[in-house]
Fold these 2 entries.
Entry 1:
Amino acid sequence: MAILSRIIWHYDSSGLQAKKYFGSLYEPILHCVKDPKNYVFNSDSIKVEAKTGAKRKLIDYRKAVPTQYSSTKVPGNVWYFPRVRYRMAEYENHPSQKPESLLNRMILASSHEGSLILDPFAGTFTCGAVAKQLGRLSISIESQDTYVDIGLRRVFGWSEYKGKILSPPAKNYQPKPKKTNNNSEFIQGSFF
Ligand SMILES: C[S@@+](CC[C@H](N)C(=O)[O-])C[C@H]1O[C@@H](n2cnc3c(N)ncnc32)[C@H](O)[C@@H]1O
């Protein structure tokens, strides 16, 4: 196995407002592949806007024929995606739920439609839910029954399991509509 990239997932605000230390605003992610000479990387599926080309329209005069810089690029290894907040439609009751946008980039980059994706620590089953949205298959493993219930609802769309009603978290207002965010600067490999 080889590590291809050390990625930083940077987010907007820490869950806990630290007063006596510098609060965390990132999580590290390792992009690993089994064989560095043979792996899936769908660069076209995850390209983001390249500010130089798309906004500033600068010309690269180092080329034999000066041409405008390209308007899209593969993201670098610092990714910005907002954390999941209570007001977001995707919010579930779990202390470390990952945003769908983060998993969206990882899954698009490293798998094909119909690929099988394993998430051994499923939590709220974000990985399984996004895999399904993107036409992938998934196996998710989770030790806590409460979170398995979330997964059954989120991935299979079940509304009841073993006599228990599987409802999304109750909210006293309309959640913000879901945004598809694959365009920020900051997920055949594995990400840890
Ligand atoms: C960091 S959370 C995963 C969050 C998930 N990516 C999401 O978006 O919701 C890790 C999860 O792994 C589960 N877990 C911890 N140890 C486990 C084990 N040995 N087997 C299965 N699940 C485990 C925990 O209950 C927890 O829900």
Entry 2:
Amino acid sequence: MGLRIYNSLTNQIDEFIPIEDGKVSMYNCGPTVYDYFHIGNARTFLVADIIRRYLEYKGYQVKFVQNFTDIDDKIINRANEEGVSASQLSSRYIEAYFEDSEKLGIRPADVHPKATDHIPEIIQLIERMVDKGIAYEVDGDIYYRIHKFLDYGKLSNRKPEDLLSGARVGIDKRKENPRDFDLWKNVKPNEPSWSCPWGCGRPGWHIECSAMAIKHLGESIDIHAGGQDLQFPHHENEIAQSEVLTGKTFARYWVHTAFLRIGGNRMGKSEQNFIFVRDALKDHSAEAIRHFLVSAHYRSPLDYNATSLSDSDSAIRRLNNCLERIGPYSELADSEVSTSDSEITRAAAEMLTNFELAMDEDFNTALAMGEIYKLVGHVNRFLTQEKLIQVDRVALGIAYQSLIKVCMVLGIYSELESIPNGNTQLVDQLMELVIDIRNDSRLRKDWVMADKVRDRLHEVGIELRDTPSGTNWEWRGD
Ligand SMILES: [Zn+2]
């Protein structure tokens, strides 16, 4: 069976058929870079990352684009507060995005376009709309004539009238229709601006995404993703802008991620109830945070509470313990020994099949992860009950490889995680203790003990270096 995706455009689960066989173009609305991102934001980036990984797992060649909104009211206000330029502020948080997303195991997109690098493309789209009578100018502002796009509202099933209550839209008497939304804003004091055929100004938020998606992926794309809050009006406006010009379906599948909640409310900057990813990473490994974020299906709300990340820490430890125990058999997995009668081989094959069935049905990571832990439980029971013969060892090697394959899709396994990210402080303290013990041995001229400590550390991948200023240690990582 093939992949099926819940499509917000059709309000149903649709079979996934890409425009071009074997290839997928995918756009995800990226962050507005005026601050660090929190784990609620991380959920939408992670969902896009996992969709991309799973598409690749299925053999698709994916081109994935995620933008930076680097010009926006929030950026300008924050920059003015701090007395820096908007571009200095956005550069700082773009860098922070890359740092935090890398730590979280979110792969960089193929292209990370910035809105301010696409001003000519944005102006060109707006000019075409003005020429066609779809957009009009008032005092240097350009507005989209919403009644010109008859399909307006097809994504969100909302009417143009709802735009009046949109958070980013105020009532402006200069507009022909109060529901018309802005494509370009005339220059204001203390704001960055670019010259354009109507004077000087800066782009509106919605047109940026249309311009960047079209430039990097073409006029029709396969999958457009983003947080649930972007469906209206942002994505609706992206459709209106793009389709009115191209006459083509802008995006065939619209994927919207539900909110992360805390205390029953959406986690968000405006709610002041968020936890930055970089803070969460001080106490928890990246794999545990990812584990937590994929523990629910992406369309279901997920609740964050005090125990949710600790529960994920324990689950990841259980997974890693199992992988560590059966890892040594992995090189046997390709041997000639027939394991068709082994219950472990059967369980591993069943896990793979069920994992794919779960992911094929609208990326159900919750069910997929359940299958992984079912196999972990099976393997652990097997290891306690059986006396291992060669067939068992080969079967455990196969189970190991199957688990690694699917854990890589969910990003809950990292080859370099033997020193868990979140416990670096503890590791530092333990290493200080071990080095102290070794130094005491050396002072007592107990060379046997001192060498034993160094050799045993070497076995677990840690190298000691004696320098004139003391002993340092280094994680070799293999
Ligand atoms: Zn967008």
